[in-house]
Amino acid sequence: MKPAREWKTELSGHTLTPDVELVSGREGDATLRVNNVYLHSRYNPREEAKRLVDSAELDRKRPVLAIGCGLGYHVLELLSRGMTVAVVEPVPSVARLAVEGPLRDSDALLGVGDVQAIAQTPAFRTFAERVPQILAHPPTAQLHPQYVAEMEARVIALAVTDRRLNIAVVGPMYGGSLPIAQCLERAFRSLGHRTLYVDNSHAYPLYQSIEQSVKTKTAARQLRSILVNFLGQWNYAHVAEYAPDICIALAQAPVGLDFPLRLAQSGIITAFWYVENWRHMPYWKEVAPRYDTFFHIQPGDFEQCLTECGCSHHAFVQTGCDPSVHRPVELTQDERAQLTCDISFAGAGYPNRNTLFAGLTDYDLKIFGVDWNGREIQRFIQHPDKRFTPEDFAKIVAASKISLNLHSSTSHPGVDPLCDAINPRVFEIAACGGFQLCDPCIGLDRYFDFESELPVYRNLVELRAKIDYYLAHPEERAAIASRARERVLQEHTYERRAQQILDILLERHGARLLRKGVRAQRTIGEMVDRVGNDTELGRFLAKLPPDQEFLLENIESHIARDFAKRAFPESMFHYLAEMYRAAEAMLESRGM
Amino acid sequence: MRILALQIARMGDVIQTSPMVRALRVRHPDAHIAMMVRPMGLAAAQHNPDLNEVLVYDEDELFLDIRVKDSDRLLQAYRRMEQYIEMIRNGRFDAVYNCTHSLPSAMLIKLAGIPTVVGAHLSDDGQFVLRGRWTTHFFTSVLHREFNDLNLCDLMRLLVEDAPPAQELVLRPKDQDRAFAEALLHEHGVTPDAFVACFQLGASEENKRWPVAQFAGLARLLVARPNTRIFLLGVKDEAPLGNAFEEFAPGIATPLFGKTTIPQAAALLERADVLVTNDTGTMHIAAAARCPVVLVSVGWVHFRETGPYGDGHFAIERRRTLLGHAQTRESAPENAESVRPEQVLRVMDWAMHYRANPETPLSAEDSLMDQVDVHIARFAPDTCLEWYPALRRPLAERDLIRLAYRYMWLDFLSELTPAREQESLRRLLLCYSPESGGEAQALAARQQPALKNLAQKAEEGIDTTKRLLTALDTKEVKKAQERVERLMRLDEETRILGELHEICKPIVLTARFERDNLEGANPNILAQTTLRIYQDMQAQTRLLQQKLDTVERFWKENRGNLS
């Protein structure tokens, strides 16, 4: 890839193919006909180019990659507007006529030939990393649609894939998806992205108190609905102000149905991660079609249903574990006294669990979580109305010889042979270093080896037999737990899930990021490298915390108060901050 | 000599700065004079022949680069700032006139390191300071607008030491702009003898806008006259106003939103007979083109301060009925509709009459105009723009105080000869009804006690500051502290005096502003500056007392004879 004018010599040796024909225009400017498709207007190609560029609504400050050169009228139009332009053309004959014609003196970068060859050039890589906008020349797109799609995908891969993005995660008020939301946000952050976690859990005490204070069910329901609507507006305002590249809402997040559409108007990619059993919670029907991508945890029948309800972009992403919270922990003496047991279960009291665990009352059993109604097991419930945190969970696992897992079911007592919604507990117990006995949820064998990493049971008899066996074989327990932990740390962390989500979103919707542009989020340390630590600016920045983001508000907080002691860069940043504040105040006073 | 005029506000402000530039050119005919403007002011600056050079400073780009919170763009903004600073430094300017009077503009100048500054600046310890005799008045005039009789163009012009009169705005279209205007008029079938009226429907704020329906009403009245053409001027974004206009008056006016550049608009206005407008940049273009302007002054518009600068422009506003008292807290927005189309049409006729017969008096009894006030702009013998009542009204207390302040500031900060003052007074008072009297006669009796009180405060301030200086010299720390505390209490008493008696407010605000922005940390220098501030306050108060007496006496002695 090189400036157009430098292609003349190379392309002059190329023989024009018969399908490419230069045609004189009616008013002087020529056009090209390729396989009976005119690449430009025969009457006024320059006027046509103006209209094309106008209609593209490009941001003048950002570079543009034109796919399809034609004779270059649209390239010249872009250049005349002061834009930085590169162009790629699949057909060498077309490129030759362009550089012998309107582009003969142009400095716009030109790449000719197949996508692979162009994409590997350093010039293309450098240009793509500037996150250019794409302008596909319509006749070229008509003649070479595959070329356009591939080129776009290459640009996305280079421009966006390794870039630090802004990601908002909207969590629920309470419930099982709350810790998942928090883990996901942490995972994006540890992948190097800038994140906003919209925390709705603060509203849960208010939500609860409505139920407790208003006895009439209808009134309570209405009030809760009002609260949820209010939270929906607040969540929108919060996310809109942050202006992320991607916004992911978790199951049960209090957002309105119009939430993704409103965000999409600002070019934000929206996703919903439905970490629930689709058969239990049918609200997915309304929600799924509205998001750019609807993530779920149950492949198979559910995907068919999603397509049928109008959700064209869905993807399966399993839950996982967060090693920063799901890890082996040391217990204090008090904790040991409180929590130690042979068998534990931590989770909500679904009916099948109440039923199955009623068959374990002769063991040293402790049960944690809410909504446990089974009469036989009441004496084993540790804190009936208390929800446990991920930190509590790690302690429960640490204190137990065996951590039980049983996937929830409302249709089967005990083990549900048709269960296909793998719960995050599987991965969490393993990450905490616990020994786990689990029911064989459909698909679970993809993640664990049932012999060496995760022993399973299909009924109460089998469960009891395995409990007895493994209580008597502590070394085997420890070995299995260790192998399971190794497995989840390698393959089932939320970091991996977060990356999987991002890969899917960027592959499907990365073009939108190109249109919108991606904010460069560099640290101060990175900027020191960029400007050079032997420059005045570099020397000043080198005194600041290197991990802080290179943003004006961060730099301003480090500017010396004593005016006389300021270095030139400090005064400059102070000027920029004052100028910005004055302009913002003026806009605000005009209601803008 | 190399001089920089810094005007990085809006397009209209660039045009309003042209009298200052003219004054600089007359004072320094061989100087290299440059102006730094924003892109929106570029065309106006480029068409000012008094300038040798125009520098462009794109603050909007900087703002956007910062707003997006993108690290690369922040670096870009920084680099661009470096280039702007270098551009100014490379200009090797000996002096800069900062007409933007904002903190960022002061910081910009400081960064550029120009040795002499008139206007807003930063001291060596980073304090916002004002340099130049007229600068503080220019800066604080917005705080007491009701008593400000001087146009912004004159205030800026007076920043130049011994500023010669300018008496016009400067924006010179080129031949190609004039050719464009001619072609445009030809395209729309405008004959050479047609009456061409231009309307500017928009304004920067809603409350400054005369309603579109009223403009449409005026248009309907106008087109009833033979061979009248109406053009709607403005930028592309104002086209919706044109659509609204079309609903009220279909097919009457030709919209030209976004169809002309600024010099082309100036060329068009050179050919037009009148511009009817809100307080906008187009108004200043018309004034520069010497097209008669009829400003419909509604809302928070202060036409004396920001109205069209030139001879023969008119301003019409709702009549203020609060006579006899200086305080006015008008609620404005709902009054926009009270100026009626037929009243504006009458003023347009007066403007045409004045253009043809400038010496023929205008003021008349006219029952159509009972509820409005109309003023005509002319240059007074004191060389500054003055707004003369076109409709005879009784002289109000506010008018007297405003006049007294006008002459006080001109005398105190520049030099105003008694002869010029008298002649200025005579010409203005000619326009008021000789029947008014009660308010004027009692003025001194009502207002002098407050001024006397203010003068006493100033005297006490002088005395206390001198004693402070003595205490500093003799290193009597406790005494010095006591005197500083007394000065702080005195400041507060003076501030309250200004709140209680509006006539004192401008002087109090000016002194207070200076006290709040003392430069440096050296106690002796601070005390010396404080002494100067109180001395100025005393001098201004005494001078204002004299001017009040002069105005009142002149009116009493001459009102029957003014003709």
Overall description:
The complex is a heterodimer of chains A (592) and B (563). Chain A has 592 residues and is an alpha/beta fold. In chain A, 44% of the residues lie in helices and 13% in strands. Chain A contains 25 helices and 18 strands. Chain B is an alpha/beta fold and 563 residues long. Chain B is 51% helix and 13% strand. Chain B has 21 helices and 16 strands. Chain B has an eight-stranded mixed sheet with strand order 9-8-7-10-11-12-13-14, with helices on both faces. The two termini of chain B are 48 Å apart. Chain A binds chain B through residues 61, 519-522, 526-527, 530-531, 537, 549-552, 563-564, 568-569, 571-576, 578-580, 582-583, 590, and chain B through 59, 61-64, 66-75, 77-78, 81-82, 85, 102-104, 107-108, 110-111, 122, 124-126, 204-205.
E-strand count of chain B: 16
**Largest interface (CB < 8 Å):** A-B, 30 and 33 residues
β-strand percent of chain B reads 5-15%
Major sheet strand order of chain B: 9-8-7-10-11-12-13-14
**End-to-end gap of chain B:** 48 Å
What separation lies between the terminal Cα atoms of chain A?
44 Å
Sheet/helix structural class of chain B: alpha/beta
